Design the sequence.
């Protein structure tokens, strides 16, 4: 048995045989030709066929992964019609007197390289797309096309990498799982895999591909990213049990899908999910969460080498909002400092970083960073149901400064003629004891509170959440923390605001009833906890006891 490690992008287990993914006719040779007009005709015919195929893929994607994810194939169709791309192919055929396949391959390399070298993340991503459409065009010329397993048995597809169109084209009835040697967990392919509910691991490494052959027995763990080649009996047994647990979850999903989260006495609770980036939307949808209660936007900054631009942020926020199709998406503004350090922010070293220069304190001190993020957020607000939330609030004046900045940004957008949504809700995190204690003063200023129990516990109990030695001192059900939450809930409601919990305690099922009795309106938890929490809520009767 050999074990390989990649990145799990869809949490499910598959046990089955490997099928190495092959692309028909990928080998392109340079051939001299006498009749450029004939080659140009071949390009046009291939283009027509490629458009037909892409329209079919788009329709399949629409049904399987939704409108936002299907959009990429509309972009592919537009790219096939791009003037520069077509001029380049024509030029190479006419001036070099070469075959159409070769002209497309050279154009593809040139354009892909050009896109890859651009600063803008959106344009960089077009590099993979131009390769994808070019491979399709070449395949259409040779009547080949991309292939998958021919056998009737469901297989684990193993590939070097898969383009988005190849991923969507996989016949779900024949694919147990897929594993790629390369690729990133943020790629479009990974996002599609999540939405297609296929167990998938990407970035398993070159060695993985070299070491397997068609028909080898594999276990793919989409939860952990582990792949077992030729697994022993014990491992197969362990994973069969894991599969059974997944099946139970799936059944729960079927039972709860589309149902409201209401207690036995009829109280409605919103159950949302917490995410760190665009890549997690698939698991939010797979677990049927009612919205996103916390998008930790700092991960966009953490994954970047430099300050993400307004455009890059806008693209990410818009994607999340569109994917959630009108469901609530609460994006928290930058929360770095303390345990989340970023070199390019050049923050001074501090003796007590958890009590230091972090989150809203950085944003209010460096308004240019804050303004860029707020502009991106408000621009994205036109594409869905956005809530903006500020972290680490301790005072009324901080909230007033945040609100003033929002007003400034909205005015700027208005005078630039850029659309935004006036319905964007504004909220704050209740994660410092100070905020909870003055929640009566804060609530009239905002639409909602969201309790960050991780920090609220750390600050209330004076226990650094990073310090493993303190674990035995941290009583997560400490009465002081619970009283602060209760006080905040009361003050929110008196002032017409709603209140949620987005810290880890929201997923503690032994506290769900306590929270509901306090009047908590929303609970936002990691995607895997959404379904058990929804099941729990439906078993509670607030009229009893
Ligand atoms: C919290 O503090 O509970 C919270 C949700 O924020 P983070 O864990 O990102 O600090
Ligand atoms: Mg926090």
Sequence:
């Amino acid at each position: 048995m050999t074990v390989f490690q990649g990145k799990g992008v869809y949490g499910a287990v598959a046990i089955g045989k490997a099928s190495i993914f092959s692309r028909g006719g990928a080998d392109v040779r340079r051939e001299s030709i006498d009749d450029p007009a004939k080659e140009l005709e071949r390009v046009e015919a291939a283009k027509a066929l490629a458009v037909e195929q892409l329209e079919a893929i788009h329709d399949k994607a629409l049904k399987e992964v939704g409108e936002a994810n299907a959009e990429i194939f509309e972009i592919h169709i537009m790219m096939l019609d791009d003037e520069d791309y077509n001029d380049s192919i024509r030029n190479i055929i006419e001036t070099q007197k070469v075959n159409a396949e070769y002209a497309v391959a050279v154009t593809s390399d040139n354009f892909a390289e050009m896109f890859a070298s651009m600063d803008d993340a959106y344009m960089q991503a077009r590099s993979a797309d131009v390769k994808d459409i070019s491979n399709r065009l070449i395949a259409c010329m040779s009547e080949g096309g991309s292939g998958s397993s021919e056998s009737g048995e469901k297989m684990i597809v193993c590939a070097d990498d898969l383009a988005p169109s190849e991923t969507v084209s996989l016949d779900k009835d024949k694919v147990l799982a897929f594993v790629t040697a390369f690729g990133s967990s943020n790629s479009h392919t990974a996002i599609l895999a999540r939405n297609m509910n296929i167990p998938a691991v990407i970035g398993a490494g070159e060695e993985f591909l070299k070491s397997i052959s068609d028909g080898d027995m594999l276990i793919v763990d989409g939860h952990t990213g582990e792949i077992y080649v030729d697994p022993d009996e014990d491992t197969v047994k362990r994973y069969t049990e894991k599969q059974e647990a997944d099946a139970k979850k799936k059944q729960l999903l079927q039972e709860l899908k589309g149902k409201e989260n209401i207690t036995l006495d009829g109280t409605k609770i919103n159950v949302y999910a917490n995410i760190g980036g665009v890549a997690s939307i698939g698991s939010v949808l797979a677990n049927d969460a009612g919205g996103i209660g916390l998008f930790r936007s700092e991960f966009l900054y953490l994954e970047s080498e430099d300050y993400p631009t307004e455009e890059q942020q806008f693209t990410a926020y818009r994607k999340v909002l569109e994917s959630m199709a009108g469901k609530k998406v609460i994006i928290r503004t930058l929360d770095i400092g303390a345990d989340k350090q970023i070199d390019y922010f050049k923050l001074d070293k501090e003796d007590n970083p958890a009590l230091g220069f972090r989150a809203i304190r950085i944003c209010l001190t460096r308004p240019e960073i804050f303004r860029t993020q707020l502009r991106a957020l408000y621009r994205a607000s036109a594409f869905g149901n956005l809530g903006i939330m500020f972290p680490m609030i301790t005072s009324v004046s901080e909230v007033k400064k945040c609100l003033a900045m929002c007003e400034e940004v909205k005015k700027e957008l208005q005078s630039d003629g850029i659309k935004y949504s006036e319905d964007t809700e504004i909220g704050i995190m209740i994660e410092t004891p100070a905020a909870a204690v003055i929640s009566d003063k804060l609530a009239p200023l905002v639409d909602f509170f969201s309790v960050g129990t991780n920090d609220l516990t750390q600050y209330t109990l004076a226990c650094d959440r990073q310090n493993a030695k303190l674990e035995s001192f941290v009583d997560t059900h400490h009465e002081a923390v619970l009283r602060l939450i209760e006080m905040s809930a009361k003050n929110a409601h008196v002032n017409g605001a709603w209140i949620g919990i987005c810290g880890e305690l929201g997923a503690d099922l032994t506290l769900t009833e306590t929270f509901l009795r306090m009047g908590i309106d929303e609970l936002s938890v990691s995607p895997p906890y959404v379904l058990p929490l929804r099941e729990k809520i439906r078993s509670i009767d607030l009229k009893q006891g």
Remarks:
- The pocket of phosphoenolpyruvate (ligand 1) is lined by residues 294, 296, 335, 431, 452-455, 502-503 (CB under 6 Å).
- The chain has a mean pLDDT of 90.
